[in-house]
Specification:
The protein is mainly β. It is built from two helices and eight strands. The strands form two sheets. It has a five-stranded mixed barrel. Strands 1-3-2 form a three-stranded mixed sheet. The longest helix has 6 residues, at 88-93. The model has no long low-confidence stretch (mean pLDDT 88). GO terms for molecular function: structural constituent of ribosome. Pfam families: Ribosomal_S8e.
Length: 126
């Protein structure tokens, strides 16, 4: 997934190409997104900038569902992905991202966490 460095490969006002004055730096690294799907629990641990760790979900089985009326959190099994407004392709493939609507044992809920970066699925009952 080679990507040009931002603002290094702009064109001249005449339309001519300009050479980048330097290459990519380590902190400008780009990765493929981890698309979380429904299945047996599987997580990936990534080392990120500053020596920190980011946990990503490759596949999930359960979600932490908050019922705002009762003020309780329940760990519920995800039955299916109802819809994902982030991308039509994600909707078709059943990828879980922030904002996706999922059907759980506790009822229909909207995902409020980022499973591909947080490593957990948190949702609010709707």
């Amino acid at each position: 997934m080679k990507k040009s460095v931002e603002n290094l490969l702009k064109r001249k006002p005449t339309g001519g190409k300009r050479k980048a004055y330097r290459g990519r730096r380590k902190y400008e690294i780009d990765r493929y997104p981890i698309e979380t799907v429904l299945g047996k629990e599987e997580r990936i641990v990534k080392r990120v900038r500053g020596g920190n760790i980011k946990v990503a979900c490759k596949s999930v089985e359960y979600a932490n569902v908050v019922d705002s009326k009762e003020g309780k959190v329940v760990k519920a099994k995800i039955l299916r992905v109802v819809r994902n407004i982030a991308d039509k392709d994600y909707d078709r493939r059943g990828v879980i991202t922030k904002g996706a609507v999922i059907e759980t044992e506790a009822g229909t809920a909207r995902v409020v966490s980022r499973p591909g970066q947080d490593g957990v699925v948190n949702a609010v009952k709707i």
